[in-house]
Write a structure and sequence with these properties.
By secondary structure, the chain is mainly beta. It has one domain. Helices cover 5% and strands 36% of the residues. The protein contains one helix and eleven strands. The strands form two sheets. Strands 3, 4, 5, 6, 7, 8, 9, 10 and 11 form a nine-stranded mixed β-sheet that branches. The chain has a two-stranded antiparallel sheet with strand order 1-2. The longest helix has 7 residues. 31% of the residues are buried.
Length: 135
């Protein structure tokens, strides 16, 4: 089965310690959790008032996750206690797994756990990075 094209040739958007791809998911899939959990990233300040600076992005770090905003309306999962199997993303984010397109036997991809979703159920099977077992 074809899982798409790795436009990074295995060189980008992958955790080389365990060969798990970074995941990308639409913010619309996890809107409330992302809004409640993420914090703004501000540019380096030169002594001016931080309140006047506009954020340059959003991030979340905690509970074993490292997440950042990506493109205009996506979240990139850089680290997670969980993974799933997906198609590769388009050339826009080369080498990542597309969490909006899970596929059995696809690319091993960091993912979000059930608690990130409105109905507390992820749209893909979730595996533990630590044990390799389904959660």
């Amino acid at each position: 089965m074809n899982f798409g094209i790795d436009y990074s040739s295995g060189q980008a958007n992958i955790d080389h310690t365990n060969d798990i791809r970074y995941g990308v998911i639409s913010q619309h899939s996890v809107t409330q959790a992302w809004v409640d959990s993420s914090v703004p990233i501000y540019p380096a300040q030169d002594g001016s008032d931080l309140d006047t600076a506009e954020p340059i992005g959003w991030q979340y770090e905690g509970d074993g996750y490292q997440l950042v905003d990506c493109l205009d309306s996506d979240v990139m999962v850089l680290k997670s206690p969980y993974y799933t199997f997906t198609m590769f993303c388009s050339p826009s984010v080369p080498g990542t797994g597309d969490l909006n397109n899970p596929v059995e036997g696809g690319v091993k991809t960091y993912c979000l756990g059930n608690d990130w979703f409105e109905d507390s159920e992820a749209p893909y099977p979730i595996y533990s990075v630590e044990t390799g077992l389904i959660v």
